[in-house]
Amino acid sequence: MLKKSFFLFFLLLSFNSILQAAENKPTVITTLFPIYDFARQVGQDKISVVLLLPPGVEAHSYEPSAGDVVKVSKADIFIYTSAIMEPWAGKFISGVDNTKLRVLEASGGFTDKDPHTWLDFTKAMVMVDRIRDTLIAVDPANRSFFLATARQYNKKLADLDTEYQKELSGCQDKVLIQSGHFAFGYLARRYHLQYIAAYKGLSPDAEPTPRNLAELVDTIRKNKVKYIFYEELVSPRVAETLAQETGVRLLELSAAHNVSREELDRGVTFIDIMKVNLKNLKLGLSCP
Ligand SMILES: [Zn+2]
């Protein structure tokens, strides 16, 4: 009996110290999956990182809830991509009552109207550096830890960039046709692909016009395109229509704005998603 209560006592004691340690960690709220993963890779067990976007939810049309305000009002750091990607962020932040909160616009100052900056991995590396510096500002005691993890992670992104350069250099087809919104501008530019999206706008909820569709059908036929790409987390209805019309086959290409519940639980990473993309791009563009 005595032994048992001693055991319980120590169990409680250690549980309590775990709780205290968790409380002392900076809480980092991130909006989209790429910055969630970058923060997770740099902060590891030294931070507690939250993805604000619920799993499976489309990123561009997201509107924060009252619960999100509560989360951020208790957090140490809020990281979003940019005013173009999350147009709600500025107003949202000014409505949060939290004087200690540090806010980072991870892609701030990138002079491009396309907000999908993370799909150029050299730009993703800049975002990682900014996240690292923000973590250091809030938790200077772990400075050397964050410097080391950011360096390691940026090495992985640099390797990924090299792999993309190498694998996509000798493809037979150079036209990347995608049935969704204009998300792969950065990626296409970086790897010298011609990029056509079914709709020019940013919202995946928008519909391509009949004229856009007719032009795409023409382009597919003229270039003898074998595969087109559809985006993550939205119904590939447009892609299916094009497939019925022209006989092209379909492959997924994820811009990684967000992940599904299953992927989040499985611990999928940004780099995992980009490796699947590369595999599909190689198949779809007939690369050696
Ligand atoms: Zn997008």
Order of secondary-structure elements: HEHEHEHEHHEHEHEHEHH
CATH architectural grouping of the largest domain:
3-Layer(aba) Sandwich
- Strand residue percentage: 5-15%
**CATH homologous superfamily of the largest domain, by name?**
Nitrogenase molybdenum iron protein domain
Helix coverage percent of residues? 40-55%
Could you name the CATH topology of the largest domain?
A: Rossmann fold
Q: What is the distance, rounded to the nearest whole angstrom, between the alpha carbons of the first and last residues?
A: 70 Å
Q: Going across the major beta sheet, what is the strand order? A: 2-1-3-4
Class by alpha and beta content: alpha/beta
Task: Give the CATH level 1 class of the largest domain.
Answer: Alpha Beta
How many helices does DSSP assign?
11
Largest sheet: 4 strands, parallel
Apparent shape: globular
| Overall average pLDDT | 91
The small-molecule ligands in this entry are:
zinc ion
How many independent structural domains?
Answer: 2
Radius of gyration: 22 Å
Strand elements, count: 8
Q: What are the low-pLDDT stretches, counting only 5+ consecutive residues below 50?
A: none
Tell me what the structure shows.
With 288 residues, the protein is an alpha/beta fold. The protein folds into two domains: 18-164, Rossmann fold, CATH 3.40.50.1980; 166-284, Nitrogenase molybdenum iron protein domain (Rossmann fold, 3-Layer(aba) Sandwich). Helix content is 49%, strand content 11%. The strands form three sheets. Strands 2-1-3-4 form a four-stranded parallel beta sheet, with helices on one face. It has a two-stranded parallel sheet with strand order 5-6. α2 (33-43) packs across α5, α2 packs across α6 and α5 runs antiparallel to α6 (143-167). The protein is globular, with a radius of gyration of 22 Å. The mean pLDDT is 91. Zinc ion binds at residues 60, 116, 181, 183, 255, 257.
